[in-house]
Amino acid sequence: MDWIDKGYSYAILITDLTNSYEGHQTVPLLASDIARRVRRGKHEDLVRVLNRIRNWTKFGLLKPVGEIHPGGGRACQYSEGALLDAMIIQELVNAGLSAVSEVGQVLELIKSKVPRLFTSSFAKRESDQTLLILGKVYSGSNVTNVWLRSPAGFAELHAKRLCSLYYVIDLEKIRERLNAEPEGEGE
């Protein structure tokens, strides 16, 4: 184990990150690191976002590296994979899905249907399939379909009328936020 200086406290660097991008070793992130990346703009209170991250962890939507409550003044740590999960969860919540009842199932469906989205290569744009599309057969049903498509591919998909309701997430925006420097607290 190595020690990493995180300012006022120290974090233990765990080299076996089980929730990281496939084949990509990263430095553990704190909930505050994730909160700075997923907040809905500079105007949103960071404490509010931090509470949201903690609730997502409490309900099992985000999985920390190691213990959820490490105790002894140590903070819960997350992998970079959890950062991507948090960004997708935030987009699903923004689209109107319930964080507690729907998002967990949808996130697992996305991971099973589009596993390449959760690999280290996601940070690099490798194709024109920049939209993550979720489909419901009718508005009261669960999300049952997941596609990666280009904008033109979505138009073709919609023309087939496979679903009556679509959620469309622009992966380019998530990719930009993933590769950007986190916003500071005072910004």
Characterise the protein shown here.
The chain has 187 residues and is an alpha+beta fold. It has one domain. It has six helices and seven strands. It has helices at residues 31-38, 46-58, 80-94, 99-113, 151-159, 171-179, and strands at 2-5, 10-13, 29-30, 77-78, 131-136, 143-149, 165-170. Strands 6-5-7 form a three-stranded antiparallel beta sheet. Strand 1 (2-5) and strand 2 form a beta hairpin. Helix 1 (31-38) crosses helix 2 (46-58) and helix 3 (80-94) crosses helix 4 (99-113).
> How many structurally independent domains?
1
Q: Average pLDDT, to the nearest integer? A: 79
Order of strands in the sheet with most strands: 6-5-7
Regions with little confidence, pLDDT below 50 for 5+ residues: 1-25
Number of helices: 6
Sheet having the most strands: 3 strands, antiparallel
Class from secondary-structure proportions: alpha+beta
What coarse outline follows from CA principal-axis ratios? globular
How many β-strand runs? Answer: 7
**In whole angstroms, how far apart are the ends?**
34 Å
Helix content: 25-40%
Helix/strand order: EEEHHEHHEEHEH
Strand content: 15-25%
Q: What is the gyration radius calculated from CA atoms?
A: 17 Å
Kindly list the characteristics that best describe this protein.
187 residues, alpha+beta, three-stranded antiparallel β-sheet, two-stranded antiparallel ribbon, 6 helices, 7 strands, 37% helix, globular, disordered N terminus
